[in-house]
Design brief:
The complex is a heterodimer of chains A (48) and B (234). Chain A has 2 helices and no strands. With 48 residues, chain A is mostly helical. The longest helix of chain A is centred in the middle third of the chain and has 36 residues. Chain B is globular and about 70 Å long. Chain B is built from 7 helices and no strands. With 234 residues, chain B is mainly alpha-helical. Classes of the chains: A mainly alpha (48), B mainly alpha (234). At the A-B interface, helix 1 and helix 2 of A face helix 1, helix 2, helix 3 and helix 7 of B.
Chain lengths: 48, 234
């Protein structure tokens, strides 16, 4: 791998892990809110 | 979370994403290439802020552990586990970016130098923290064990920091930077810190919701005592 590839891969790893986790939290939050609103899932019943 | 809080969080994440993109653009477009190491030195602008934020996340876990031991309130344990999760995530980024930089600078992916070894130990300690917790069923006991463990695990943080100063080390202990590079490093600290803080807060909010859900589940499982039937003593 060239030094440029090393640098790009390092930034891709950082962005992927940190923003990927942030996105997964957001999706999880949305899922829970949806479950709470509908009230027809176990998670929704627990959290509502 | 109410609608107002959701809007504030949405604005927060948009600002953080914009600042992050601007910082990465500044690193690759505006900042000059370092003469000795070349373009791979640009990894440093994310590696160092993420490493400092790892220490901060570990410190929050430690402080929350002390808070739990002092007050025995569940909220401290929720904060401790939330920041421990983010500490593992950030430490993973530090190890991976460090390995990528090391492969280019030293020609090897990994070397057992004191700082690298203590950093790996730090990662393993906090992974073990998260793995051990679910094996303890009682919530109070889990929080107590976790709080004590967090205190012990935090001892590795000063070791990571001081290892380059106290022991013979291949890892750079201090780097001389040109003024543009210093400015870029300072700019990179802002979105990385906002991102880390945002992740800890979001994870903490979710953890509180999970705790409340478990509380309500425990309440429904508790058998109600019928009025006028107190064990036949009436």
């Amino acid at each position: 791998m060239s030094p440029t590839t090393h640098a790009i891969v390092a930034y891709a790893v950082t962005v992927g892990l940190l923003w990927g986790y942030a996105l997964s939290l957001w999706v999880s939050c949305r899922g829970r809110r949806g479950a709470c609103k509908s009230g027809n899932t176990e998670a929704g019943r627990k959290l509502s | 979370m109410c609608a107002m809080n959701r809007k504030i969080m949405a604005v927060y994440w948009l600002v953080t994403a914009a600042l992050f993109a601007a910082a990465v653009g500044m690193v690759f477009i505006w900042t000059p290439v370092e003469s000795t190491m070349g373009i791979v030195q640009k990894v440093f602008y994310l590696h160092l802020p993420v490493a400092i934020n790892t220490f901060v996340a570990c410190m929050i876990t430690f402080i929350a552990g002390v808070g739990y031991l002092w007050q025995r309130r569940q909220v401290w344990d929720d904060l401790a586990v939330s920041s421990a999760k983010i500490a593992v995530l950030l430490c993973s980024v530090v190890l991976l970016t460090g390995m990528i930089w090391g492969h280019s600078a030293w020609g090897v992916w990994w070397t057992w130098s004191p700082r690298l070894t203590f950093s790996l130990v730090l990662w393993l300690l906090y992974v073990a923290y998260l793995v051990i917790r679910p094996s303890i069923e009682s919530r109070q006991r889990r929080a107590l064990v976790s709080a004590v463990y967090a205190g012990v695990a935090f001892l590795d943080v000063p070791l990571v920091y001081l290892s380059v100063k106290l022991m013979p080390e291949i890892h750079p202990s201090s780097i001389t930077l040109a003024s543009e590079m210093k400015l870029t490093l300072l700019v990179c600290f802002v979105p990385v810190t906002l991102l880390s803080a945002g992740l800890i807060v979001c994870r903490f909010i979710m953890q509180r919701e999970e705790t409340r859900a478990m509380d309500s589940e425990d309440d429904t499982q508790t058998d109600p005592v019928p009025v006028g039937s107190a064990g036949g003593l009436t």
